[in-house]
Amino acid sequence: MPVEPIPILPEELTLQYIAEGAANVIWRISLPQAAIPPSTLKEEYSKSTPPPSEIDPDVGVIDNSDNGNPQTALGYGEVLLRLRKCLPSSESNLLAYEYLSTVIMPLFPPGVMVGQTLVKLPQELVSRANDVLHSLEETNARPIHRRHLYLAGDPRPSEQQMEEKYAFLVEDMTPDISRGEFLIEFKAKWLTQSPNAPADWRRCRTCALRLKKHSEALRKGKTVEWRGLCPFDLVSQDQKRNANAVKRILKHPRNEDENLVTRVTKALINGPQLSILRELQASLDPNGILKADHTSKEFLTAMTLRDCTFFVKVSPTDIQARLGDFDVKSGDGGKSDYWVKLETELIEDGWYSGTEKGDFPWNAEGLQVVCKL
Ligand SMILES: [Zn+2]
């Protein structure tokens, strides 16, 4: 259980549907002007957080700063509300927060992760949100493949009943397109070599796996782009390699804008995320998949950190990078065996050493994929 008191959201919040994934629906929230208690008005923006936009008279604040984690002290104008769907396979928001707050958040200083805080739901809010989903369906405004699954925590009797007393407030990384902003998402993956890679390795874990997967796709007759981001380029001391990695992340046509490439490269290289991730991946899993205890918290955390996502909001004047998608990893359900099998194949079939059998495009002169630390 989180030790700090969990704030309760005001019942009178207005909700605006923004987007949804398989397990959650994201809402923009605001307080009606009259409902803002003056004593809670507060402005708290980090250096890298852009000033509030014009929609922002609603700076009612959930102030969690007592918990020593200022990144959770956010105003409604800067956060989105994430409500969980009735998906039996998903874990409760309380459990998800318990994992985040005890395992992941202590690893990072404020401002490195996408800010997230747990809030208690007022009684009627989920029912109102579900009513919005129903009316969006009636007007064909809800994506077809998302229909007929509603939010957990609605106390009204219905076919979908699942208890959920909590929700997340998440830092709003939505780009304002009218101000020339855009969002880049990418995974930096394995920023250090797998401790189990052979001594004569020529490829990093990420490039080795990418080529192996693409060889399987090629065998099935699929055309695939086999070139990709090498994480070692991102953390190298070589500016040209840094910029090449960023070009892969930006993709065409943005990667042709030299000024943009330079700005994003500087922001990522000078930012804290990459070096923290690299150090943690190395220190939490010194033995590698083949020798690690797959039930150890450290190893599983290293696997989570190898799969988290960078969210980079680029505006004409500012670049804001945050880490998110810290999913709990577990070796259960055959996953542990899968990790071992995959690592063994990467080693034995020559994906690390670049001696894999087969006539692949990356075996042609000048196209070899070779990674350097
Ligand atoms: Zn590589």
Automatic annotation (TrEMBL):
E.C. numbers: 2.7.1.158
Keywords of the record: ATP-binding, Kinase, Nucleotide-binding, Transferase
Gene Ontology MF terms: ATP binding; inositol-1,3,4,5,6-pentakisphosphate 2-kinase activity
InterPro entries in UniProt: Ins_P5_2-kin
tRNA processing found in the keyword field: no
EC top class named in words: transferase
Role: Has kinase activity and phosphorylates inositol-1,3,4,5,6-pentakisphosphate (Ins(1,3,4,5,6)P5) to produce 1,2,3,4,5,6-hexakisphosphate (InsP6), also known as phytate. Phosphorylates Ins(1,3,4,5,6)P5 at position 2 to form Ins(1,2,3,4,5,6)P6 (InsP6 or phytate).
Name of the protein this chain belongs to: Inositol-pentakisphosphate 2-kinase
Organism per entry: Orbilia ellipsospora
Lineage: Eukaryota, Fungi, Dikarya, Ascomycota, Pezizomycotina
Gene name in the database record: IPK1_2
